[in-house]
Amino acid sequence: MPLDFLKRKGSDSGQVPAEPPPVPSAALPEEVVAQEYSLKLSYAGKSSEGVRMQGGPKLVADLPSMLVGFAKAEIEVVEPLPIEFSQATPVIVRPSEAMQWLNAHHIHSPITRHALLVLESIDAIDLAFDTMVCSILDGEVDTSGYPDYNAVVGGVAAHWDEVSGDLIVRAVLGWGGKGARGDTDRIATKLLGNLLANILASQYSLGLTAVERPVPAAGRGGLVCAHCGFASGHERAFYCPKCGMRLLRG
Prior knowledge:
This protein has helices at about 95-105, 110-120, 185-200; strands at about 40-45, 50-55, 75-80, 130-140, 150-160, 165-175, 205-210. The protein is of the alpha+beta class. Strands 1, 2, 3, 4, 5, 6 and 7 form a 7-stranded antiparallel sheet that branches. Strand 5 and strand 6 form a beta hairpin. The longest helix has 17 residues, at about 185-200. It is elongated, with a radius of gyration of 31 Å. The model has no long low-confidence stretch (mean pLDDT about 85).
């Protein structure tokens, strides 16, 4: 009996070996079909002129009252940040600074965090020396409690004058995110005027003044206030950013 199964295929059996499958062409098509992605974030804000106020023990405590009648949610006070949070910025591409920012503000409500994100991103406030009193003033919040892109947030920002020791108070508003609405700017302008009128109506008001914001030194190696224990924002400060008392130097 012949052992045909031992014969080589294609030799004695007469079978032709199968050809290998064709290699697909690596040539690119004339036009590449691409899927495009984009994300546009737009933040905007407004700030009024400063109002000089005569310093006093009850002055800072009265700042939240300036938002009464305008706030649509809880009014929160954000005090200047101590030195350990000197690098805190709401920028996710800088992980260490973003983590400082979250650690410093995690206790606040979503509305306040959103307001700080917007206002710090556009450099409308600087928590090295500003005290911020804020809430939502117009618009709605989503199911998570965060303001919509067209909601106007903010309130008043205050810092102590390095020369006179008076408190400089101004109205500061912000809005933005994924989208824009045409009438938001108009609404914010009206709110800004109303808030400024409220600030001027305070019993401590001394009138309008130019806003000269302090410039913190690069090292942020400031003094510690002997009255409230707050670490000053910068070494050249004469007054405590938190309580306004004169800093004692050795």
